[in-house]
TrEMBL record:
<dbReference type="InterPro" id="IPR036412">
    <property type="entry name" value="HAD-like_sf"/>
</dbReference>
<dbReference type="InterPro" id="IPR023198">
    <property type="entry name" value="PGP-like_dom2"/>
</dbReference>
<protein>
    <submittedName>
        <fullName>HAD family phosphatase</fullName>
    </submittedName>
</protein>
<dbReference type="Pfam" id="PF00702">
    <property type="entry name" value="Hydrolase"/>
</dbReference>
<dbReference type="InterPro" id="IPR023214">
    <property type="entry name" value="HAD_sf"/>
</dbReference>
<dbReference type="InterPro" id="IPR006439">
    <property type="entry name" value="HAD-SF_hydro_IA"/>
</dbReference>
Length: 203
């Protein structure tokens, strides 16, 4: 199988409500309140953050835009932006799944909404080229999920027809977009569930 992994929330830890609760205890009392603050900060990965994801603006610009839009001090917004790389910790269970799939002979790729500075960090911190044959970061191709363009770019880069790819992502909108374009796609919740879903798909 040709299996394509999302990164944030799948291969690497990414849960903005708890992230902000830890980082901004003076603003966020718990993960429930963190969800509300995260919706303001990241705008569901549209708006300012979406432009950052797509490599259309840099970190300084996204900081200034979020501060202007929300009224939060730019220094506090900058704290969040700077803390993201440390938040993207490898998910041990998913790493084990990747190793299993690779050992079994499956071809592995990635397709991630990721601003360029964070993509650079992940490449420095982890042996992505050993784990995956190829991959696409949104910040480098100027398109992001769930738009059709990034799926088309990925298909072309991987040299694979969409229907031969199985996409794992934790966002329903990205799963639906992939399916609409002819990809096989599975909503990721845990590595254990993904393993079961993949086994079922292989039957």
């Amino acid at each position: 199988m040709n299996i394509v992994f999302d990164f944030g929330g799948v291969v690497f830890r990414w849960h903005p409500p708890s992230f902000l609760a830890r980082l901004w205890p003076h603003r966020v009392a718990d993960a429930a309140q963190g969800a509300l603050v995260a919706a303001q900060f990241f705008e569901n990965y549209g708006g300012d953050w979406g432009a950052f994801d797509q490599g259309l603006i840099d970190a300084d610009t996204v900081i200034q835009r979020i501060a202007l839009r929300t009224g939060w001090p730019a220094a506090e917004v900058a704290q969040v932006v700077a803390a993201v790389p440390d938040e993207l910790q490898l998910q041990v269970d998913t790493a084990a799944l990747i190793a299993e799939l690779k050992q079994a002979g499956h071809r592995l790729f990635y397709l991630s909404n990721m601003p360029e500075p964070y993509a650079d960090h992940l490449e420095r911190a982890h042996p992505l080229q050993q784990w995956f044959e190829s991959g696409v970061f949104s910040g480098r191709v100027k398109h992001s999920k769930p738009r059709a363009e990034i799926f088309q770019i990925a298909s072309e880069r991987f040299g694979l027809a969409p229907e031969t790819c199985v996409f794992l992502d934790d966002h329903p909108a990205n799963i639906e977009a992939a399916k609409t374009l002819g990809w096989q796609a599975l909503l990721f919740t845990t590595a254990g569930q993904a393993r079961l879903d993949l086994v079922q798909l292989m039957r």
